[in-house]
Design a protein that fits this description.
The complex is a heterodimer of chains A (63) and B (377).
Chain A: H1 5-33, H2 38-62
Helix pairs in contact in A: 1-2
Chain B: H1 2-23, H2 31-44, H3 53-65, E1 70-76, E2 81-86, E3 88-92, E4 96-100, E5 111-113, E6 116-121, E7 124-128, E8 148-149, H4 154-179, H5 188-207, H6 213-233, H7 245-262, H8 265-272, H9 279-325, H10 328-366
Antiparallel strand pairs in B: 1-2, 3-4, 3-8, 5-6, 6-7
Helix pairs in contact in B: 1-10, 3-9, 4-5, 4-6, 5-6, 5-10, 6-10, 7-9, 9-10
The chains are: A mainly alpha (63), B mainly alpha (377).
């Protein structure tokens, strides 16, 4: 039985979504603990989110 | 002034967010007309042109995502009139062939230049005979010869326009310091914090206090270039420049070249002979690290391209839903959604410019790390 590529793309998007969600949640936690470091946390969060997002988009375009 | 500031900003944001709606306000999408056209289709039967609303919207979006050889604001489908202007076509085909894109009549006619015949097929120029025959190859792509296309297309117009705008804007900002005792004036008041932001938040933390200066010109250029082009893509002019993989690929190539050419010996040492790991591991790590240098700019390219492309497709599809539903609830809902998404797209426009600049700075910084910490690996 052949599994269509779009299913794989969907799975990767689910994974990417979970990953970005975790990053966002952890950043929220960290900012709540240390509001004075919010700038640095935001920068690090954006970089990590952007890296994961790239994989998600690559999966979308491969499908 | 302080009281009126906030509503003013809100009104400006609202206006900018509503701009994409205008690009869809074409006479062809008039619901009364669409109905008659669907009726026409029923009587006429098979026809090459898509006539029902859904495939029309699909064709419109697909056309928008491609680069275009002429600048069309809107099309009157009843008379077939195109409102816009044509752009020069420059081809290299046994010598330079320059003619106006109006010769193609929007892909309907064969253009002739110095005894050569060209035809426009899905925004690509093919060389044909006088009758304009295209031989169909595999996957429906024509197998005709394609001349080297150096035309001033719509995207090129956008890039040139933004380049001139940036030149005028930032030279005037630089000059205003001398004129005004070191205080920016005019539009520079708005752009000075952004320039400082790129320097203080992007360049210095990532590259380091010592060597950041030589990268500032490049970082500022790509930041404002991508930011302005993203915003330009949200205007009703219908530009899709940063959602074009060729443009993001060249930007990523520039970052790759600068990283590679300005890297010091520590950077290459970490790629080919990673210090602090056992010797067998060094042989495994070298190809992975080498591949990593190419994947980094590749992900830069895909990220910007995919974000902007996805934004345009989603925004246009949601606006297009209005013409499919044609009801009070559906149209209101899609208007609200399109409005919210337009505001989100403004954020994405800034965020993508920021991410691209940020990651470029990060790669430059990685190529310039000086101090050597032996036990850290």
């Amino acid at each position: 039985m052949e599994i269509p590529t779009i299913v794989g793309a969907g799975l990767i998007v689910i994974g990417a979504g979970l990953g970005i969600g975790r990053i966002g949640g952890s950043a929220m936690d960290a900012i709540a603990r240390q509001p004075e470091a919010s700038g640095k946390i935001q920068t690090a969060m954006l970089i990590a989110a952007a890296l994961i997002e790239g994989i998600g988009f690559a999966a979308l375009f491969a499908s | 002034m302080v009281i009126s500031n906030k509503p003013l900003r809100f009104i400006i944001a609202t206006l900018v967010a509503c701009l994409p709606l205008i690009s869809f306000a074409n006479p062809e999408k008039d619901s009364a007309k669409v109905k008659t056209e669907v009726a026409h289709q029923a009587t006429e039967g098979a026809h090459a042109e898509p006539t029902d609303v859904k495939s029309k919207i699909k064709a419109f979006i697909n056309h928008h995502l491609l680069d275009s050889h002429d600048f069309t604001f809107s099309v009157n489908e009843e008379t077939g009139a195109h409102y816009g202007f044509s752009l020069p076509v420059i081809l290299w085909d046994n010598g330079l062939q320059v003619f106006s894109s109006s010769k193609f009549h929007h892909g309907e006619e064969v253009a002739e230049s110095n005894g050569n015949y060209y035809v426009l097929h899905h925004e690509k120029i093919y060389k044909t005979d006088a009758a304009g025959t295209l031989t169909e190859g595999e996957h429906g792509h024509p197998t005709n010869a394609t001349p080297l296309d150096l035309s001033i297309t719509k995207s090129v117009v956008g890039i040139l326009g933004i380049a001139i705008l940036m030149f005028v804007l930032f030279t005037s900002l630089a000059k205003s310091y001398a004129k005004n005792n070191g205080i920016a004036s005019g539009a520079g008041r708005f752009f000075e914090p952004l320039v400082l932001y790129v320097r203080d938040e992007i360049a210095i933390p990532n590259i380091g206090e010592k060597g950041y200066k030589k990268y500032m010109s490049y970082l500022l250029t790509i930041f404002f270039f991508i930011f302005f082009l993203n915003i330009l893509g949200l205007t009703p002019l219908g530009f899709n420049v940063t959602g074009n993989i060729a443009i993001t690929a060249s930007l990523a190539l520039l970052t790759y070249l600068i990283t590679t050419l300005t890297a010091n010996k520590n950077y290459w040492g970490h790629i080919f002979w990673m210090p602090g790991v056992p010797t067998p591991m060094k042989f495994i790590l070298a190809p992975i690290e080498l591949l990593g240098t190419i994947i980094k700019p590749f992900s830069l390219m895909i990220r910007l391209y995919a974000n902007i492309l996805a934004g345009h497709v989603v925004l246009m599809s949601i606006i297009g839903l209005m013409f499919i539903f044609k009801s009070w609830i559906g149209s209101t809902l899609s208007f609200g959604l399109a409005f919210a998404l337009s505001i989100l797209e403004i954020l994405v426009a800034f965020l993508q410019a920021y991410i691209f600049t940020m990651l470029s700075a990060l790669y430059f910084g990685a190529g310039n790390e000086e101090h050597h910490h032996d036990e850290a690996h």
